[in-house]
Amino acid sequence: MAPLGPRLGAPRGQARRRCRLRGVGGVVLASAPHPAPREPRRRGAGAVISATRRGLRAIRSLRERRRTELCALLATDSAQAALALHGTPLLLLDPERVRAQYRRLSAALPSVRFHYAVTALPHSAVVDVLAEEGCGFDVASGDELALVRRHGVAAGRLIHTHPVRKPAEIADALAAGVRTFVVDSETELEKFRDAAPDVRVLVRLSFRSPQGGSDASAKFGVGPFAAGRLVARARELGVRVAGFSFHTGRLDDPERLADAVADALTLMRHLEDELGIRFEILDIGGGFPVAYDTDVCSIEEFGAVIEPLLAPHARRLRIIAEPGRILAAEAMALVTSVVGIAERADGRWYHLDDGVHGAYSSVTADDVRPLVYALRELGQTAADSESRRWATLAGPTCDSADVVAREVLLPELAVGDLLASPAMGAYTIAAGSSFNGRAVTPVAVVVQGPSTGPVATRERMPEAVAVA
Fold this sequence. Notes:
CATH architecture of the largest domain: Alpha-Beta Barrel
Helix content: 25-40%
Mean pLDDT: 85
């Protein structure tokens, strides 16, 4: 019996010609037919060369765009004051970039209500601007819940999406007023057996994408048959299942999300007909892409594909999403300094005062390849390639794996020279540690334009995720 869709319970790559689902009552559901995959069209050498040139132009365009953004950020009075006061390493956070991204996302997907994934960047300034915009919040721990509640966010705007929790964590969330939770096992359902009638759960579905940038269903989620059984079991326990959630992982193609949405809607209709129930919520997760070292589909391109699928269901269902990376990444930049220089068998090495155990944690934990610029060359309209050389960038710890990047083209640097990396807002400080006894990289909140107020504020670590 074929699984529903190419990722719901099965790795992507299995051909989907006609999907069939046998429900919990034995009824067979056939989805709309899907054409067999076409044989890839062979391209000549000229087409390959042309595509390569387009790709290189896109990369150059991205690098220049990031260069311009860094120049604007570092030229602000508050950024200059923060660097003069605090030195490096230092993360510079512009909360207005978060606000701008939220508005773009809302315009591209008007049928969706957003709950910011606090895990991406659990910072007070981010919570404040998104609360002002009317955004909801997705929390995955008691500490994240406490952070959001301290900023006066109403409990009705929160969802708790970690599928596995201690009973005490559930009790604390319920006491705080949270009423929507995610589950993916009968064990978790049992924890809600005695919950109040207004408490609702979403069953998390599995959409495997092992070849993508991340596979968020490798650890969590269930296939369609198990989902049906969980819904039936919830009815026996008196637990209210309001709908389904899923997370496809980091997306590089809107069609992956479109397939997941279509499959989830098909499953919901089938179970509604079979069990005589009505679902209320569809949570389409997050994973919207961010351009780190290569260009990606824009928010608007995602909206053009996804919104037409969601709009017909927006009156009947509350459609929500959990954006994190796309809101936070471009709002923060990292400034580091060179603390050591060495000539090794593979060339020049620059040792920095931050690395993969700190703000560059996303390099190893999230497979991110950050761009790195020497500050003194940011203002140049064209880089002088003759004065630049390939180098390896290493972090400050004694760990030999603490390598930020290899084969980075940089000018000749000296100890004390500054480097900057853009798009460092997502899963950086949130995943950093105090390895070697080093403090987690502090954050300075900056504002664009002339500063007439106090010097930029600084947080050594967001309160909610402080490292002991």
